[in-house]
Specification:
Blueprint: H1 8-30, H2 46-63, H3 72-89, H4 106-111, H5 119-128, H6 130-142
Length: 150
């Protein structure tokens, strides 16, 4: 990143990814049995991938320095697509009893050379996303995994 905006290739990838997420959410509705299929490989776990992706989008929106953030038009569709997926799985999730996951690690991001913003802004954004993040935790746990980074 080198202190500038997110690379154009990342933005283009996010645009492509949005369509794939929407298709996956639609498949969950059309074929509810899919939500009961589990992978023994964490790299193939859709819930883990969704949790990681949504946390990355949270970081891009609220953790990365404003001068280095991608345009909101690249991040918002991905967040909406993850939300759509979560809404299709909401019937099986019991997020009320789960704690909100820990905040993403800004020092680790800064150590990787990514310009970071105000930690208080990230904490506030994560708090506003508390229900969504708890539903992601529930989805990950339902799939038999632990929260990424836990």
């Amino acid at each position: 990143m080198g202190g500038g905006r997110v690379h154009l290739g990342v933005v283009q990838h996010l645009v492509t990814l949005t369509g794939e997420l929407v298709t996956s959410a639609e498949q969950q509705v059309a074929h509810p049995v899919l939500r009961y299929l589990r992978s023994g490989d964490c790299a193939a776990s859709t819930p883990l991938a969704l949790a990681r992706l949504d946390e990355a989008m949270l970081l891009l929106e609220a953790g990365v320095a404003p001068s280095a953030r991608p345009d909101v038009s690249a991040v918002d569709p991905v967040r909406r697509a993850v939300g759509r997926y979560l809404s299709t799985a909401s019937g099986i999730l019991g997020a009320g009893h789960l704690d909100e996951p820990p905040l993403p690690d800004l020092p680790q991001l800064a150590a990787a050379g990514v310009p970071v913003g105000d930690p208080a802004h990230l904490a506030s954004a994560a708090s506003q996303e508390g229900d969504r993040r708890r539903r992601l935790v529930a989805l990950v746990h339902e799939d038999g995994w632990s929260w990424p980074g836990a």
